[in-house]
Structures are given as C-alpha cells and as structure tokens.
Amino acid sequence: MPARRTIAHRSVRKVKPMRPSSILCRAQEARQHAVAAGSTLSNVRGVAKLAAAAWGKEAVLAEGRERRMLRRQAMNENSMELSAESPHAEDLSFSENPDRGFSDAEMHFQ
Q1: In angstroms, rounded to a whole number, what is the distance separating the alpha carbons of residues 89 and 79?
Q2: What single DSSP character describes residue 38?
Q3: Nearest Cα to 20, choosing from 64, 59, 49?
C-alpha cells in the first residue's frame, strides 16, 4: 500500500523584513571605506569598496523609506485633526435622513 501524502496547512502571515536605518547604513558604509583604506591587500580593498557601495545604496533606500514614513505620519495626524474638527463630531444623533427628527417628534406628541 503506497504511503499517503498529506499537506500540512500552515497559517500564512505576512512577515515584515527588518529594514536597516539610514544611520546604520551610513555607519557601515564608513566602516567599509575605512577597511578599504587601511588594508594592504588588494582583494580586501576590492571587497570592502564593493561592500561600501552596497551600504551606500541601501542608505539611499532607507532614507526614502524614512521620508515616506514621516510623510505618512504627518498625513495621519492631519486627518485626525480634521476629523476632530468636523462639525458633526460632537453630535452623535446627527442623521442625513431629514424625516428622522419629525418621526421622533410625532411619537412624543401622541
């Protein structure tokens, strides 16, 4: 009898990758430049220069992410301020149905 294959169903979660900050990237870039400058071996210098370039590119990406995050936070704060200033924010009984108030009034008078 052949063995049965079963597929285990796993819950799929969206995992956010850990992204380095622009400060970390610039520090690593500087470190790799220092390694390249201080090395007497050409292969070490070459690898360190490539690593510095890669960290520099990642720093540019991180700066863009951080800029977008700050812009998004500012927009969220603005939208919260606007919703708090809404003329109907305090009036919980506000209804777009113009007949609502009249039907309530008729019940009280009968």
Answers
A1: 13
A2: H
A3: 59
Confidence of residue 27 (pLDDT cuts 50, 70, 90): very high
> Would the pTM count as exceeding 0.70?
no
Are 39 and 45 spatial neighbours (Cβ–Cβ below 8 Å)? yes
Contacts by residues 79-86 (CB-CB < 8 Å, ≥ 24 positions apart) = none
Q: Does the structure show a pLDDT above 60 at 32?
A: yes
Instruction: Provide the token pair at 80.
Output: 């919260």
Count other Cβ atoms within 10 Å, centred on residue 75: 10
Torsion of CA 47, 53, 39, 46, to 10 degrees: 40
| Token pair in block for residue 19 | 């992204």
